[in-house]
């Protein structure tokens, strides 16, 4: 069903739009979404983002998730505004954000992209998709890695993401898709910049001591090394799996 026929307000950011403007994070996409205000950029992943004054829940393919996904595996971003977003089963007066995954394709395709920018920003994305069994089984693999910093000293974010999907065509009108996503993120937000860890020559974390300000150290390069590799910023490893079946009643009305 076309968006213009829906009885509620929906705004969509397509994959082409996201790639053309390099909007890889929800915080970067917010200025292009009316009624949405950015959260605290130091938290990453759209933390604290509000839509029409209310906190925003995130979904992927209609299923709730606690954090925004990485953009390398996203086909489009749907922003459903207003209380009508309750169709997703979660009360959100301002609306919800629903991320739609990229699907395996029937023809073989592959691609790679590399980006470099200010504040030591480096990003590499790659994908491959195609058929495993002709007219029956298809696959897709998306990989991304980025390393970024900001104007705040000692802030960094290093993230690796792998997303894979397999689609089995049960019948002309029915398909089953299995998706898996794994993310490794090492992030040091600005709250960690003022402290460092003194290992005291020991490899046992029980002997380590959290010391004072890195600005008191005589050698700033030593301070940066200590912060980047020893400070207790935040390390996350998350894995998610999803299975969904799509049955098309007709060409305009698929059911999930």
TrEMBL record:
GO terms for cellular component: cell outer membrane. It is found in: Cell outer membrane. It comes from the Bacteria. GO terms for biological process: iron ion transport. Keywords: Cell outer membrane, Ion transport, Iron, Iron transport, Membrane, TonB box, Transmembrane, Transmembrane beta strand, Transport. Residues 3-96 form the TonB-dependent receptor plug domain. Pfam families: Plug. It is a multi-pass membrane protein. Belongs to the TonB-dependent receptor family. This is TonB-dependent receptor plug domain-containing protein. It comes from Termitidicoccus mucosus.
């Amino acid at each position: 069903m076309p968006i213009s026929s829906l009885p509620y307000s929906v705004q969509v950011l397509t994959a082409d739009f996201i790639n053309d403007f390099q909007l890889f994070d929800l915080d970067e996409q917010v200025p292009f979404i009316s009624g949405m205000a950015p959260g605290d950029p130091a938290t990453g992943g759209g933390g604290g983002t509000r839509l029409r004054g209310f906190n925003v829940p995130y979904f992927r393919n209609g299923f709730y998730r606690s954090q925004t996904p990485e953009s390398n595996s996203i086909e489009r971003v749907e922003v459903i505004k207003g209380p009508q977003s309750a169709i997703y089963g979660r009360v959100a007066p301002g609306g919800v954000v629903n991320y739609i995954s990229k699907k395996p394709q029937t023809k073989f395709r592959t691609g790679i992209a590399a980006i470099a920018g200010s504040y030591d920003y480096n990003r590499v994305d790659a994908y491959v998709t195609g058929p495993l069994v002709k007219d029956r089984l298809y696959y897709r693999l998306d990989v991304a890695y980025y390393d970024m910093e900001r104007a705040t000293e000692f802030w960094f974010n290093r993230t690796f993401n792998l997303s894979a999907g397999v689609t089995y065509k049960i019948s002309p009108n029915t398909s089953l898709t299995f998706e898996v996503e794994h993310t490794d993120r090492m992030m040091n937000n600005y709250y960690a910049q003022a402290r460092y860890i003194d290992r005291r020559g020991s490899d046992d974390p029980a002997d380590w001591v959290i010391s004072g300000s890195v600005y008191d150290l005589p050698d700033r390069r030593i301070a940066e090394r200590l912060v980047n590799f020893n400070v207790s910023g935040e390390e996350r490893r998350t894995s998610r799996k999803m299975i969904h079946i799509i049955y098309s009643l007709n060409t305009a009305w698929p059911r999930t």
